[in-house]
Specification:
This is Sulfur carrier protein FdhD. A six-stranded mixed beta sheet has the order 9-8-10-11-12-13, sandwiched between helices. It has a domain of 139 residues: 3-Layer(aba) Sandwich (Cytidine Deaminase, domain 2). The radius of gyration is 20 Å and the shape is flat. The chain is 26% helix and 30% strand. By secondary structure, it is of the alpha/beta class. It starts with a strand and ends in a 14-residue tail after the last strand.
């Protein structure tokens, strides 16, 4: 199993003084995801929670919905020429009742640690394949004050970030503000996949009463993952993309961006944010 962090020599320059010292870096290694023995995708990730990452990825792809859909996940031995196990290849076996996705052209998707999807075709696909339509879930109401408190709580839970400064994080909170789970990864989408995959393995999908907080921007891909997991509220400390806002508006997702201090922008689904009576709606 790969390590979450690694040490490298660095030349440090501070106020003209030069010194050599070891530095702690976040580890980044490729993970190949195979589905029932066939290569499906490769992502660059921080080792750890690999099975959850693979499961969460397949939730966002619409392949898995419950823990009953998942037969098992294993690391593939013999992934190298000498037959050793690199712990960088996992095979996800689905239950017999799961309809396999159409991989007629051997998809072999390569996803970088900051990748995203685009285009109206992708937006339409998410809207039509979501297992748990957010607009149909019981209403969730969160106060702006509660949302404002979440980034500091996420930052306090980032153990590896404190040592490396190079990781994204994603966290699930209850509508009352309880921290349910937090994951870190070099890729923000991987951190979300790890959360969703752990929820699937625990039988907790859909996450219809949860708030998802991400440490960076809210891309279309992160909005997609929230919708596919049935998460009604997505908050980000940075900006959303235009397509993420479009997807949120079309699916009923509440999307909050620039969540910093007591300030935030609500881009869609404002009915779930408990605004004070008489608040400006201009």
């Amino acid at each position: 199993m790969g390590r979450v962090t690694e040490r490298r020599k660095v030349i440090r320059i501070r106020d003209g003084a030069v010194s050599a010292r070891p530095d702690t870096l976040v580890a980044e290694e490729p993970l190949e995801i195979r589905l029932n023995g066939k290569p499906l995708a490769i992502t660059m990730r921080t080792p750890g929670d690999d099975f959850a990452l693979a499961a969460g990825f397949l939730v966002s792809e619409g392949v898995l919905a419950t823990d009953d859909d998942l037969q098992n996940i294993v690391y593939c031995a013999g992934a190298t020429a000498d037959g050793s196990n690199t712990y960088n290849v996992v095979d996800v076996r689905t239950a017999p009742h799961v309809t396999p996705p159409d991989i007629t052209l051997e998809r072999n998707v390569y996803t970088t640690s900051s990748c995203g999807l685009c285009g109206k075709a992708s937006l339409d696909a998410v809207r039509t394949t979501a297992r748990w339509p957010i607009a149909d879930t019981p209403p969730v109401r969160v106060a702006p004050e509660l949302l404002a408190s979440l980034p500091d709580r996420l930052r306090a839970a980032q153990r590896v970030f404190d040592r490396t400064g190079g990781l994204h994080a994603a966290a699930l909170f209850s509508e009352e503000g309880e921290l349910l789970d937090v994951r870190e990864d070099v890729g923000r989408h991987n951190a979300v996949d790890k959360l969703v995959g752990r929820a699937l393995q625990s039988g907790d999908l859909p996450l219809s009463r949860a708030v998802l907080l991400v440490s960076g921007r809210a891309s279309f891909e992160l909005a997609q993952k929230a919708v596919m997991a049935g998460i009604p509220v997505l908050a980000a400390v940075s900006a959303p993309s235009s397509l993420a806002v479009d997807l949120a508006a079309e699916t009923g997702l509440t999307l909050v961006g620039f969540l910093r201090g007591t300030s935030m922008n609500v881009y869609a689904g404002e009915e779930r944010v408990a605004l004070r009576a008489g608040a400006a709606q201009g």
